[in-house]
Amino acid sequence: MTDVRLTVLVRGRVQGVGFRYWVRGAAGDLGLRGTATNLPDGRVEVIAEGPRAACEQLLDALGSDRPPGWVGDLTHTWGTAQGLTGFRAR
């Protein structure tokens, strides 16, 4: 099975509340690789690579009431995995 890349821009109250570290844990539990990065405009960019089903589970979790803070809007795109390793919150 071919891995995919999921890129999600998360808008809401997602900086300064532990959101990136929650994403790192959730992604790690799903066996995904990637990053969660604070953007200057207050959003967080999540890039996750792995099986599509696991990426879809992460996307569902991001839109749920489980993450810390408040998620107001998610915008996502799908692409081809680029071979990321590990998962970093930066």
Automatic annotation (TrEMBL):
<feature type="active site">
    <location>
        <position position="38"/>
    </location>
</feature>
<keyword id="KW-0378">Hydrolase</keyword>
<dbReference type="InterPro" id="IPR036046">
    <property type="entry name" value="Acylphosphatase-like_dom_sf"/>
</dbReference>
<comment type="similarity">
    <text>Belongs to the acylphosphatase family.</text>
</comment>
<dbReference type="GO" id="GO:0003998">
    <property type="term" value="F:acylphosphatase activity"/>
</dbReference>
<protein>
    <recommendedName>
        <fullName>acylphosphatase</fullName>
        <ecNumber>3.6.1.7</ecNumber>
    </recommendedName>
</protein>
<feature type="active site">
    <location>
        <position position="20"/>
    </location>
</feature>
<dbReference type="Pfam" id="PF00708">
    <property type="entry name" value="Acylphosphatase"/>
</dbReference>
<dbReference type="InterPro" id="IPR001792">
    <property type="entry name" value="Acylphosphatase-like_dom"/>
</dbReference>
<feature type="domain" description="Acylphosphatase-like">
    <location>
        <begin position="5"/>
        <end position="90"/>
    </location>
</feature>
<dbReference type="InterPro" id="IPR020456">
    <property type="entry name" value="Acylphosphatase"/>
</dbReference>
<dbReference type="InterPro" id="IPR017968">
    <property type="entry name" value="Acylphosphatase_CS"/>
</dbReference>
